[in-house]
Design a protein that fits this description.
Blueprint (H helix, E strand, L loop, with lengths): L14 H16 L5 H9 L20 E4 L2 E3 L2 H12 L6 E5 L5 H7 L4 E6 L2 H13 L5 E5 L12 E6 L8 H5 L1 E11 L5 E8 L4 E9 L11
Parallel strand pairs: 3-4, 3-6, 4-5, 6-7
Antiparallel strand pairs: 1-2, 7-8, 8-9
Helix pairs in contact: 1-2
The protein binds S-adenosyl-L-homocysteine (SAH).
EC number: 2.1.1.77
Keywords: Cytoplasm, Methyltransferase, S-adenosyl-L-methionine, Transferase
GO molecular function: protein-L-isoaspartate (D-aspartate) O-methyltransferase activity
């Protein structure tokens, strides 16, 4: 698979941050992430570029951080976990992401799959994410400003779909847009804690696995903000 590597040389970071990054990778490994390619991509993706400068010093902590508009950049562990689940049955060609946010998960995916289709309802977040991916020369991503409940039917179906906000129920449109053997990783639940689900399109119908308890911001309904 051919994909561009982020140009880290232009974002030179000191020895301290390099150590901090290595510590994060060790921690993710200790917490159970095991896909070497996923860990390597997280190691080389400059997460400090995806948060406000004032928060950059916390970028390599394993924690969600605010990105404005009441939204958060996902915790690195959760980015790695969901990416591993998506890739667990082999390499993927087309992956749709719902909830671009900062674009960090997008950047990780873009280095591991052929093409990423990313949907976000808040235009200003999407604009910043686009700039960051362009800066990192990740060119295999297209963006749609729209409602993730509807997916992106025109460019589907997708071999993988990842949703980075919690849905009260699994959106029917996303099931419809899964290719044969396609995998959907989605936090589902209406309360503060939700469950991470892995749904796979089988020859007949869908299989459904309930995985970890998780905490995401809600997948919102209604008009775009
Ligand atoms: N993966 C992102 C997570 C952002 S938080 C990151 O690591 O930065 C969840 C994102 O989902 C927010 O940007 C929010 O605006 C977006 N979102 C919420 N409801 C949505 C919907 N219905 N359609 C598209 N995006 C939505």
């Amino acid at each position: 698979m051919a994909f561009e590597q982020p140009d880290l040389s232009r974002h030179g970071i000191g020895m301290t941050s390099q150590r901090t990054r290595e510590r994060l990778i060790q921690r993710l490994y200790d917490e159970g992430l095991s896909n070497a390619r996923v860990l390597e991509v997280i190691r080389r993706t400059p997460r400090h570029l995806f948060v406000d400068e004032a928060l950059a010093h916390r970028a390599y902590e394993d924690t969600a951080l605010p990105i404005g508009h009441n939204q958060t950049i996902s915790q690195p562990y959760m980015v790695g976990r969901m990416t591993e689940l998506l890739l667990a049955a082999g390499p993927l060609d087309k992956v749709m992401e719902i909830g671009t946010g900062s674009g960090y998960q997008t950047a990780v995916l873009a280095q591991l799959v052929e093409r990423v289709f990313s949907v976000e309802r808040i235009q200003s977040l999407q604009d910043r994410a686009k700039e960051r991916l362009a800066e990192l020369k990740l060119r295999n991503v297209v963006f749609r400003w729209g409602d993730g409940w509807e997916g992106w039917n025109a460019l589907g179906p997708y071999n993988g779909i990842i949703v980075t906000a919690a849905a009260a129920e699994v959106p029917q449109a996303l099931l419809d847009q899964l290719a044969p053997a396609g995998r959907l990783v989605i936090p589902v639940g209406a309360g503060e804690l939700q469950q991470l689900l892995l749904i796979v399109r089988e020859e007949q119908g869908f299989s459904r696995q309930v995985l970890d308890p998780v905490r995401f911001v809600p997948l919102l309904n209604g008009p775009l903000a």
